[in-house]
Amino acid sequence: MANGMERKIDGLVDLLMEDYAKGRVIDENKMFEYPDKDVVIDILEKLKVVIYPGYYRNSNYRTYTVRNSISILLEDIIYNLQKQTAIVLRYTPRFEQSTPAQIAEEAQRITFTFLERIPHIREYIETDIQAFYDGDPAAYNKDEIICTYPGLYAIFSSRIAHELFLLGVPLIPRIMTEHAHSLTGIDIHPGTTIGKYFFIDHGTGIVIGETTEIGNNVKIYQGVTLGALSTRGGQNLRGKKRHPTICDNVTIYSGASILGGDTVIGKNVVIGGNAFITSSIPEGAKVSVKSQELMFRYAADKPVETREIDPEETCFHKI
Description:
CATH architecture of the largest domain: Orthogonal Bundle
CATH class of the largest domain: Mainly Alpha
């Protein structure tokens, strides 16, 4: 019985080895040439401790001062981020002909340049926390926001990943934002530019594309898409502005879609729920979907009552 099972397993191994030899993308064996996702996620989680030193602790170390804790964390982050960055730099044409020593030197430069940006990242995250507190009456204190709000975690991950993206690091920023996406349901590409006081309320189902630009004091609710009009051009669209620009003090309610690289949402605009927008909106406008209608059914022997929502009552202009 055991010998029969071994023969079946050997046969399956032979079958798969034959299939692996076909030279396709999925057949490549580069396990030591790709970044370790678990290590990258661990870097992100350790950076969370660095960003919020009084809220999270690293259980792997027993330290008694913030300085000692941060020193140990930074040593760990530096070692692993340099190593993972050196792996992914080989993906870029610039380093295809570089020696391992040259790649290691560049990885070290990128790592320290990134870490020197942490005070800048913390400055922006402090404003995000304030925006969450000011904008959500369900938030009883800022500790609750830092410890529990998925929107803030998605923004934190995005701000970390964006700085690495700006430094030309491939793959690693996307691993970070996709990890946040898997935890929160909020999909923010690391290329997205985000201003101060950014507030994501609830957040599930939000999608924000690579070339989106978001100003200061912007509030976005669940189910919002800031996307491209079309991706049929494929790789020919790489590097082009495909996603909208959202100016300062804009509120976008749930289910709205704003698409296109030429689409600019002006300052102080309010976008109503489920609006579908593919052209620019001037400053100060309030936008809603045309002819919304409510239906009330009370009993089988009574007629259905319909009531159109008055855009003046809802303070929105129709589109």
